[in-house]
Amino acid sequence: MSIIFGQEQFAEAHVLDLVSRERSQALSRREWKHRLAGYGYSIRETEAGDIVETLPHRVPVCKLPADVAA
């Protein structure tokens, strides 16, 4: 079970790296979401914070840190 858990954390780290890199290159939040859609991800805004999801099935990947979402 720990091997799968480690792989999940590894995948989350790569997704968060991609999300933050695209955020730094985008001029607006709208453009950022459009760029992420090209990679197969979306940002869903919830009361608990933003969540990164896969497209088209909307499977949650990880919670987006507040400093990246700003």
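Above is the first protein from milestone M3; the second protein from the same milestone is given next.
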Amino acid sequence: MKTITIANQKGGVAKTTTALCIANGLQEVGYNVLMIDLDPQCNTTTTYQAQTEDTNTLYDLLHKKCTVQESIQKTESGDIIAGDKNLAGIEGEFASQLKNYSLLKKALEEVSDQYDFTIIDTPPNIGFYMTSALIASDGVVIPIKAEKFAIDGLAQIVSNIKDAQEAANEKLKIYGVLLTVYDKRTALDAIVHDQLPEIGEKEGFRVFDTSIRVCQQVKEAQSRQVRLFDEYPNCNAAVDYANLIKELLQEVKKG
């Protein structure tokens, strides 16, 4: 099983959309995928229509109130360990003990033979949850939008990934930076699109050849809580995410 974290400390960069579409796209080409919603906002959980009341969630798993198997919900969108809004209030509690940072990694090891991939959606901040995801992962996808602050923030997230590599997970790789909500008709988007590979070469990270074009159907799919590839398989974003999956699989196969 390969575990992939979708991470950026900046919000509004289509991070959850990317997590959802990568999971969906991998399912479309035949892989068995587990989704983990580490974001206390629980948007991925909502999209999967997973339960958070009277059932085991990530909150229960981290508190060792259930096994990882008992925390997995099977939904029409796929298997998921649901997020929980209670996670927002306990991050400091978990962060205070070093051993807690490996809780997620150890839990996933127990189901490593059941899935081909685990996709982790993380909150837009560098804290306990994102760090736990990096420690548990084989690689990271970093979605960004064509905005100055997003580009400036790349150095910070890349630095934190390298810190996780050095401190706890030497196998961790940056699979690539992904430009999202891309509109080539917009001057800034075009400039960032052209300059990002050069920035990546200088700073030591790969930029995916695929960019995800702006697409209204993404919002429509999320509002209806349906999978993009199921409902709008020919829309720009679905085509782009399908191409991204091909690139991502090539990166994963490199080991």
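Note on the second protein: The first helix runs from residue 15 to 28.
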